[in-house]
Amino acid sequence: MMKYNHEQDSDGVNSRQEEKIQYGSHVSENYSQNEDETDDFGLSLDEEDKEHLHQPSKYDMALRKYNTDLDDAVVAHKVEHIIAEKLAKNNTTDVKQLLFNCIDLTSLKVTDNEESILHLVERVNAFEDTYPDMKNVAAICTYPIFSALVSQSLEVEEVEVAAVSGGFPSSQTYTEVKIAETALALHEGATEIDIVLPVGKFLDGNYEEMCDEIEELKELCGEKKLKVILETSVLKNSSDIKKAAILAMYSGADFIKTSTGKDGAVATPEAVYAMCTAIKDYYTETERVVGIKVAGGVRTVRDALIYYSIVKDVLGKEWLNNKRFRIGASGLANVLLSNILNKETKFF
C-alpha cells in the first residue's frame, strides 16, 4: 500500500508551504524585511530558519559516510590491473560453471509472447535431466505480464521468477503505476523484482523523491529481492555511480544492477568496479549484504570472466554465488555452455 505523502495535506496544500506562510506572518510582525534573505514566498527569515534551510538532508548525511570522490583514471587503471593479473587465473571450468549458475536468463523483447516464454521455461525445466552434473541458471527474467506463466510452468525450485517492473526501462511513469505493476507481478508469482532507479531525479539532486519511491517498492516486495538498476552508462562518472549505488542500498535495494540493456545502455568493467567499492563500503558501515548484477552487453565468456574477476578482487569469495552475484543475459547461457562442453550448443 502506498505510503502517505507527508508533504501534502488533504486540501492539496504543501505542508512546507503552509509552515512558511504561518511563520511568515510572525516574521512580518516582529522583524523588518530583508530583501537578501527570503524564503520561496519572499518572506524574510531569521537566523534560525536560515540555518535550517542550509542543513544537509539525511541523504547528504548518508553519502558523507563514504568516500564517493572516485577518480575515473584511477578506476580504469585498477580495472586494467585486475584483468591483467587475474583473468587468466580465473579462466577455469569451475568458474564458468559458477557463472552459468549466476545467470538471470532474460527475455525482454517486443516480440515476446506466451509461446516463446513457455519454450524458455521448458528448456530450463529440461536442463537438469540433460546436464545432471551442472547447476541450473539462477532465474528467468521477463516482463511482468509473463510472471504467472513462468511461475506456473517452472518446475525447478532453485530457479527464481524475476520480473522487470516500475516503468522499465525508463522509470518515467507515476509512482502509483510502478506500485500497481510491481504488486501485480508479485501477486502472479514473481519472486524477484528488477526496477530502474529514477535517473532523472538522481541527476537533478532530488534524492528524497528518488529514495522514497525505492523504499515504497521494497516495502511492497517484503522478503522478496528488489534489484535496482542504476543505468550506469548515463551517469556522469564513477563518483556518481557510487553515489547512486549507496542511495539505492540506503533505500533498501537487495541488489544493485548496472543496466537495462536498452538503447545502448550496457555494463562496463569500470562501472562494476565502482559499484563493488560501494557495496564493500556499505557492508563495512552497516553489515548489510547487497548483491551485484551485471547486465547489458555481456555476451562472451571473456566478458563474464572480467566481471567475475572484479567481484572476486573487490568483494571477495563470499560474493561468488548466485545469492550475491548475477549476470543478466539472453545469449550468454548458450555461449558458456558451449565453452564448458567444448562444442557448440544451442540448448536455450
Mind explaining what this structure looks like?
With 348 residues, the protein is of the alpha/beta class. Helix content is 49%, strand content 10%. It has helices at residues 15-30, 47-53, 58-63, 72-90, 93-101, 114-130, 147-153, 175-187, 199-203, 207-221, 238-250, 269-286, 301-315, 332-341, and strands spanning 103-106, 139-142, 160-164, 192-196, 225-229, 255-257, 291-295, 325-329. An eight-stranded parallel barrel has the order 1-2-3-4-5-6-7-8, surrounded by eight helices. Helix 4 (72-90) packs across helix 13 and helix 11 crosses helix 12 (269-286). It is globular and about 75 Å long.
Strand content: 5-15%
H/E element string? Answer: HHHHHEHEHEHEHHEHEHEHEH
Shape: globular
Task: Report on the biggest sheet.
Answer: 8 strands, parallel, barrel
Separation, N- and C-terminal Cα atoms: 38 Å
Under CATH, the homologous superfamily of the largest domain reads Aldolase class I
DSSP summary: helix tally: 14
**How helical, in percent, are the residues?**
40-55%
Mean pLDDT: 89
Please give the domain count: 2
Would you identify the regions where 5 or more consecutive residues have pLDDT less than 50?
A: 1-37
Query: From the helix content, strand content and strand pairing, which structural class follows?
Result: alpha/beta
Oligomer: single chain
In the CATH scheme, the class of the largest domain would be: Alpha Beta
| Number of DSSP E strands | 8
Q: What fold name stands as the CATH topology of the largest domain?
A: TIM Barrel
